[in-house]
Write a structure and sequence with these properties.
heterodimer; A: mainly alpha; MetI-like fold; about 0% strand; flat; B: alpha/beta; Rossmann fold; 2 domains; six-stranded mixed β-sheet; 9 helices; about 35% helix; globular
């Protein structure tokens, strides 16, 4: 019997670099075409009253250029609030996730509380958080973002550490492996894909949290305030520019998390590619 | 080479009066195993066969100290089973390959060596040797998902043998594979067994597989799980595809089948293993 008997292994996920770029371009081409088509339709179809509330892309672009200075300042402030929240929420979530995976009692106490707390409407507590950390302090927005990020991280980290194949644990037991080795060699690698899944959701949540916090007062040099003030002044184009910048920030952060995922757990990307 | 029950050397495994009861929801308990006495000599290939719920997987796990018996003693190389586990006397192979997705083939085989602090050139040499043994040379850098089910199971066997355990415990390792792959891997396991001289305990639902591989087949019956028959398999070694065509092979297959039937009227032998795992009280 030779090594190649049984079904042949599927081609190892690595294409030559140029091939990979071309393959990716082809894969995303439909999405790009649709995106451009939507922009064109949007530009052509906006008129009348709609033109004021949903301005065409060209007028949003013009407003963005005219207010570049304000928008840049606001975008940076909001961006740092969201990133700060993402970092704080992730670190705290990982810590609590490890604790609840390690100690059943912590799991019994923390997870119901975490799930319960995550059902509280964000809008309802935004003013409280704002007052707690100081309306004018950017930290209040950061904590709002952190709060939103926290729950999915806790739940996914716990799940990733706990949901290990029972046979994998039996195997480690048969090796007389120490609990530390089980953690390092089985539980943590098993958890990483869960963590990255949660992180991707969290990038969006961090920006939502920061913006909602901003809506409830504080510095005016943030994207949330730009949206509110420009809308009340009837400048919908500027409001849209701020909204799109916020969403671009979330998308870029999402992509950065995706790149980190590919670098840190390359096997997982290959595994998923094989499943599709 | 014929290794039978009559070997003089001290048994590698000695089971005496082993019993296992699992608690049942709502009080009480079910007896999964009762009065198990069995000696296994060095270099034997023992198959445990029996109907669903006969406790053969539980018995395998008791030998490997993955489950503690309720009563009785388990001696491995003259030591209690927990000590044997701490001494890394066991290599385990499960029905699922249980390979780690984040490790390449060679890193999977290397895992038990890392835990046993085998390092450097010695470690690399053993990994290489094991992958050669299961004929996966050249697949070192592949990830498990890039291999077929049969190849994954061969990686699991290489991993189980990497630290030269005294006993190889195999829990229906080929139960999830197609018949062709299963027969090929049966031949391969026999070759590995002959080359390494390891003692093997092998749980299976397949009568032909048990007869083809074993030096002795231990037939078990259910409720409570116990040993109902031990059949010496005197087919000559080494065995190959022609062994399956001999009259003696057919006689022994019939003998095992009748032993199973005699103690378990009309019960199906090929029961899906998930059902079995539940029937046996889950995996510890």
């Amino acid at each position: 019997m030779t090594a190649s008997t049984g079904s042949a292994p599927v081609a190892g996920g690595r294409l030559p670099p140029t091939g990979a770029v071309v393959a990716r371009a082809v894969r995303y081409l439909p999405a790009i075409v649709v995106f451009v088509a939507v922009l064109v339709l949007w530009e052509l179809s906006t008129g009348g009253e709609g033109r004021r509330v949903i301005p065409p892309p060209s007028s949003i672009w013009a407003a963005a250029q005219k207010n570049a200075e304000v928008l840049r300042e606001a975008a940076l402030n909001t961006f740092w609030e969201a990133i700060g929240g993402l970092v704080i929420g992730t670190v705290a979530g990982i810590a609590v996730g490890f604790a609840s995976a390690r100690w059943a009692i912590a799991r019994d106490i923390l997870l119901p509380v975490a799930i319960g707390a995550s059902t509280i409407p964000l809008i309802a507590i935004a003013p409280i958080i704002n007052n707690w950390f100081g309306v004018l302090n950017p930290l209040s927005k950061t904590m709002m973002a952190a709060l939103l990020v926290f729950f999915p991280i806790v739940i996914n980290v716990t799940r990733g550490l706990v949901q290990v194949q029972p046979a994998a644990l039996e195997l480690m037991r048969s090796y007389a492996a120490s609990p530390g080795e089980v953690l390092r060699k089985v539980r943590i690698p098993n958890m990483l894909p869960f963590l990255f899944t949660a992180l991707k959701v969290s990038t969006t949540l961090a920006f939502i949290g920061a913006l909602v916090g901003e809506y409830f007062g504080g510095s005016s040099e943030v994207l949330g305030r730009v949206v509110l003030t420009s809308m009340s002044a009837g400048s919908f184009s500027l409001a849209w520019a701020a909204i799109l910048i916020a969403s671009a920030g979330a998308i870029v952060t999402y992509l950065l998390v995706g790149i980190a995922e590919r670098l840190l757990i390359p096997w997982y990307a290959a595994l998923r590619a094989g499943e599709i | 080479m014929t290794v039978g029950a009559g070997v003089v050397s001290a048994p590698v495994v000695r089971l005496a009066g082993v019993q296992k009861a699992f608690p049942v929801k709502g009080g009480g308990s079910t007896v999964a195993l009762q009065g198990i006495d069995l000696d296994i000599a060095r270099g034997e290939f023992i198959s445990l066969i029996g109907p669903s719920g006969c406790g053969k997987s539980t018995l395998l796990r008791i030998v490997g100290d993955l489950i503690t018996p309720s009563a009785g003693t388990v001696q491995v190389n003259g030591k209690p089973a927990p000590q044997a586990r701490l001494d890394r006397d066991y290599g385990m192979v499960f029905q699922a390959p249980v390979l780690f997705d984040w490790r390449t083939v060679e890193a999977n085989v290397r895992l038990p060596l890392e835990i046993q602090k085998v390092r450097g050139a010695e470690r690399d040499r053993r990994v290489q040797e094991m992958l050669d043994l299961v004929e996966l040379t050249g697949f070192h850098k592949h990830y498990p998902h890039q291999l077929s089910g049969g190849m994954q199971q061969r990686v699991a066997i290489a991993r189980a043998l990497a630290f030269q355990p005294a006993i190889l415990l195999m829990d229906e390792p080929f139960g999830a594979l197609d018949e062709m792959t299963r027969e090929r891997l049966n031949a391969e396991v026999l070759r590995v067994w002959a080359q390494t001289g390891t003692t093997v305990i092998f749980v299976t639902h397949s009568i032909p597989e048990a007869v083809f591989l074993s030096t002795r087949v231990v037939v078990m019956s259910a409720r409570p799980g116990r040993i109902s028959d031990v059949i010496d398999i005197d087919l000559s070694q080494p065995r190959d595809e022609t062994t399956r065509e001999t009259d003696r092979y057919y006689e022994l297959v019939t003998q095992v089948r009748e032993a199973l039937r005699g103690h378990h009227e009309g019960a199906p032998v090929g029961v899906p293993s998930k059902e079995r795992a539940r029937a046996e009280g889950g995996i510890g």
